[in-house]
Specification:
The protein is an alpha/beta fold. Helix content is 55%, strand content 13%. It has 2 domains: 156 residues, NAD(P)-binding Rossmann-like Domain (Rossmann fold), CATH 3.40.50; 86 residues, ProC C-terminal domain-like fold (Orthogonal Bundle), CATH 1.10.3730.10. The protein is built from 12 helices and 8 strands. Strands 3-2-1-4-5-6-7-8 form an 8-stranded mixed beta sheet, sandwiched between helices. It starts with 5 loop residues before the first strand and ends with a helix. The structure holds NADP nicotinamide-adenine-dinucleotide phosphate.
Length: 276
């Protein structure tokens, strides 16, 4: 990323998190980044919070930059792409984070064979604990993948998948924090039921979730083996696990992710239909 110039079209919550991550990481300086917003009143925010130049003019922001990160809402993508297509060239890389917007959708809006990478980050990116799924479009090569990966590595972990799996990534890691918040909330509620103050109970639940996640990531052991290591014969945990099985926690989580993926697919089709 060193020496590259970056344009961020639509510096909202996610755009801001990514720019902060890149600046902290140190490869880019604030003078290497220009951002655009939708309203005049938002320009000052870019200078104050990120120290970068802001503009309402997407064409100006995008022109001659090495990487163009599109971080507007999916419903604004069509208009933004039509606006910038004349100033984009195949020497630039377009990275889109717009949910349910395919690389094909982006490519078909661009006049030239510009390389495109699609990314699906999640909200923990804001605290550098993000998980981003990435996939490549038709014209993207290995060095484009590396550049796109470097952006999201600044705010967490990354993985490349085939684009056909992006609905699954959306349903699992992008929607996933919502499911896990419900689990934390429910565990905390259980603590309250057992007389533990809510604040303490929430800490116990959240730190336990964090610790369990780190055990999976750092030990690389199968989660079932880690579960077994907590489960003493005739102990307390097995009784708790039996309740979870009876309540169909596993199948409920599987069905939740599958349902969310179906919805993500519907949204992709809606975006594509809007184009025609
Ligand atoms: N938030 C996440 O964790 C997350 C995760 C995965 C993917 N995404 C994707 O990231 C994108 C942005 O999400 P967000 O949560 O960051 O939304 P957001 O906070 O609403 O940011 C969107 C930004 O776009 C700006 N904007 C609107 N119209 C514009 C235009 N025509 N030209 C340039 N800028 C324009 C807005 O400017 P004003 O502030 O002036 O209105 C706003 O700052 C979405 O496509 C979303 O699907 C987000």
């Amino acid at each position: 990323m060193k020496g590259k110039k970056l344009a961020v079209v639509g510096v909202g919550k996610l755009g801001e998190a990514l720019i902060s991550g890149l600046l902290k990481q140190g490869d880019l300086k604030s003078s290497d980044i220009v951002g655009s917003v939708g309203q005049e009143s938002s320009i000052a925010r870019l200078k104050e919070r990120l120290g970068i130049e802001g503009s309402l003019d997407n064409r100006y922001v995008v022109k001659d930059k090495d990487i163009v990160l599109l971080a507007v809402k999916p419903q604004n993508m069509d208009a933004v792409l039509s606006e910038i297509t004349d100033v984009l060239t195949p020497d630039q890389l377009v990275v889109s984070v717009a949910a349910s917007v395919t690389t094909r959708f982006v490519q078909e809006r661009l006049k030239e064979a510009v390389p495109v990478v699609r990314a699906m980050p999640n909200t923990p990116s804001i605290i550098n604990a993000g998980m981003t799924g990435l996939c490549v479009g038709l014209h993207a090569k290995e060095d484009h993948k590396k550049m796109a990966e470097a952006i999201f590595k600044c705010v967490g972990e990354t993985v490349f998948v085939d684009e056909s799996l992006m609905d699954g990534v959306t349903a699992l890691s992008a929607s996933g924090p919502a499911y896990l918040y419900v689990i934390i909330e429910s565990l905390a509620e259980a603590g309250v039921k057992l007389g533990i103050p809510r604040e303490v109970s929430t800490l116990l639940a959240a730190q336990t979730m964090y610790g369990a996640s780190r055990m999976v990531l750092e030990s690389k052991a199968h989660p079932a083996l880690l579960k077994d290591s907590v489960t003493t014969p005739a102990g307390c945990t097995i009784d708790g696990l039996m309740e979870l099985e009876e309540g169909k926690l596993r199948v409920t989580l599987v069905k939740a992710v599958v349902k969310a993926a179906e919805r993500a697919r519907e949204l992709v089709n809606t975006q594509n239909a809007r184009k025609q």
